[in-house]
Design goal:
Elements lengths: L5 H12 L4 E3 L6 E5 L3 H11 L8 E3 L3 H5 L7 H10 L4 E6 L15 E5 L4 H10 L2 E5 L11 H6 L7 E2 L11 E4 L6 E4 L5 H8 L7
Parallel strand pairs: 1-7, 3-5, 4-8
Antiparallel strand pairs: 1-2, 2-6, 3-6, 4-5, 8-9
Helix pairs in contact: 1-5
């Protein structure tokens, strides 16, 4: 995993604040990103992927504190998972605060998928610009590329910028719906159901 330079961070931050879209490396797959607070930019992501707005974008955050600005106070299980698996490949679908329902991320405006990635550069970017709307950098229904160039080429049109972070994984994050009284895994990934249960039982987690 390559760490882009501070100069690249400055360029990407400026582009995102201006409403642009960027292909960025993460600790899992390459992501197609825009500033979550820019509805015009998020709408562009759906166009670049040819993806229905019924399917929501996830949000990358710098840390747990930034996540808590967008979600209702989390249940104990969620707090435990954040402590055990963040930063890391776990996306948690949670209830939004009413003050965050203006974010046009697609899908249900009462929930949001949140992740704090184990990629210091991406966390630094989120700390600089705010929560980042993201989705895998590939055209909807197509294979997930493992290089920045292939990720950009798979989209309908070129994004505003492509950040090369070296070879990426083919495995996206685990997604867990924690919006109701019973949690459920929506997408299997690096964090297994056994890992989740072990953390809740006080067994900790392997990073």
């Amino acid at each position: 995993m390559l760490e882009p330079s501070d100069d690249v961070l400055d360029r990407v931050a400026t582009l995102l604040i201006g409403g642009g879209s960027v292909v960025v490396p993460t600790d899992t797959v390459y992501g197609l990103a825009a500033l979550a607070s820019r509805p015009d930019a998020v709408a562009r992501l759906f166009e670049l992927k040819e993806r229905s707005e019924r399917q929501p974008m996830a949000v990358l955050v710098a840390d747990e504190a930034q996540a808590l600005e967008l979600i209702e106070p989390p249940a104990q299980a969620v707090s435990t998972w954040m402590g055990a698996f963040w930063p890391g490949p776990l996306t948690l679908v949670l209830r939004r605060r009413s003050s965050a329902r203006h974010l046009e991320l697609g899908g249900d405006d009462t929930t949001v998928g949140m992740r704090c990635p184990a990629h210091p550069w991406v966390r630094a970017l989120a700390a600089r610009v705010g929560p980042i709307a993201t989705t895998s950098a590939n055209r909807h229904g197509h294979a997930t590329p493992t290089t920045a160039a292939a990720a950009a080429a798979s989209l309908v049109h070129p994004p505003g910028l492509v950040v090369d972070g070296g070879p990426a994984s083919l495995v996206a994050s685990t997604v867990v719906d924690a919006t109701g009284p019973e949690w459920r895994v929506l997408r299997a990934g690096p964090v297994t159901e056994e890992d989740l249960r072990s953390a809740l039982a006080g067994g900790g987690a392997e990073r």
